[in-house]
Structure formats: structure tokens, C-alpha cells
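So, could you explain the following?
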Amino acid sequence: MKCARLALPILLGWLLVLPAFALDFPTLTGRVVDDANILDAATRAALTNKLAALEAKTTDQLVVVTLKSLQGTSIEDYGYQLGRRWQVGQKGKNNGVVLIVVPSERRVRIEVGYGLEGTLTDAISRVIIANSIVPRFRANDYPGGITRGVDDIISVLTGDAAEWKQRAAKRPETTTNLVPIATLLIVLGTFVLVFVMIVGSMSGAAARRDRRRRGWSVGYDPSWSSGTSSGGFSDNWGSSSSGGSFGSSGSSDGGFSGGGGSFGGGGASGSW
């Protein structure tokens, strides 16, 4: 019974944490990663040229990715994890943006790096999605929606941010995105669960040591000491690597790779 009580919280903890480790991310092969295969070669080439020109002018990195599915998670959770995996944006500046399109689930997101959250705000991202991207997606014009979205993001990042902020301020807030809140609650719940498990394990170990000491003090036989040890456990997890260099992945965009940027969940999502 005691083992069953200990196994249940461990199982629940793994069920909460496992999806984050099980996500499969596409390889960063260029500035446009069309994993869902919805863009023609001419559109991919035109977008790539625009994104390269943006980085040359501002050092900001904007990547477009289309996905086959979200693998059971939210586009918000997948988005910031993908941005971190690819390390879009410059290290120290965190000036990366990822435009994510998932046609099979009718979801789109503009994921914004830490350093650009004050320029490409959540409100501006919502305006771009609602006015420029979603109407074209509803008409099954994926190349047109993505191209217009990219043009608007570039407009914001190259000097028109003030005008876009005024435009966003005139748009009433009609919905509240509760997904990040739910994700935060799940993460906090996982930490609490892990903490309780650790404390319980330490308490159980202390109780077992106390029982052994009491047993030894009553009738300890020196012959029990066989010189063996249960130690020697080796933790090899620290030797693994999660990558960090994407230039060697066979990029078709002149060796394009992320510059070391990071993401914290800024941006906006939409559906059609």
C-alpha cells in the first residue's frame, strides 16, 4: 500500500511533465520552414529574401514555420518552446520573432522574443493576425496571409511601431487568452507535486535510518558488515546535449541559424 501511495504522485507528475519532453520540433533549415507544405517555391524564395533583408537592416530575426500539427499541446506552449529550441534572435538582444501557422488545426501565432516585446507588442500582434492573416486564411489563401503578415511584422520592426501602437489602441479587447494562465498553473502544480514527493522521500529515508539505528543498538552483529556498498550510482544525464548549433543541419538558406535568442511567451494567437 505504501508503494502504491508513492507511485501515484510520481505517475501524475510524469503525466504533467512528459508532454513538454515529447514534443517533436522540425529542423531549422532556413528562414522559411514549410513543414506543412502549403507554400510554393516562389513564395518561399520571396519570403526568404524579405527576412534576410530585415536581419541585414536591423539584426532582428524573423522565421516563418508551418506545422503539420501541434502534437496535442497549445500553440502558445509549442511556440515559445520552438523559439527557444531554434534560438531565433541574437544572443543578448533576444530579438527574434516566429510566425507559426498550423493549417490542420486552423491556428496561427506570432511568437515574440524578450527583446522585441516592447516593439511588437501583444496588441499589435493581435491586430496583424486579425486584420491581415486570418481573413486570407479563411479564403484558403495561405501564401497571401503569410506574406501579408510578414510584411506587417517587418513594418513594425523597421520603424512604424508608433503608428501600429495607435492602431492597436483603437481596437477593443474582445477576448482574454487564458491558455498561458492554465499553463502557469500546471507548471506551479508540477513544482508543488515534485516538492511534496522530495519531502516525503526524505522523511521516509530518515524514518528508515532511525529504525535501523534503533535495531542496531539492540542487537548489532558485526558480521553483518560485508564490505559491500550500494553506492556507485552514476548520473550520466549531465553529459547529454540539447543541441544549440543549427548551422550544421543542412540549411538551404545559406547556413542560416538562430543567433542564441530566447523567448518567454510574448505574442498573440488566432484561429479561423
About this structure: Helices lie at 2-22, 41-58, 75-86, 122-138, 142-169, 179-219.
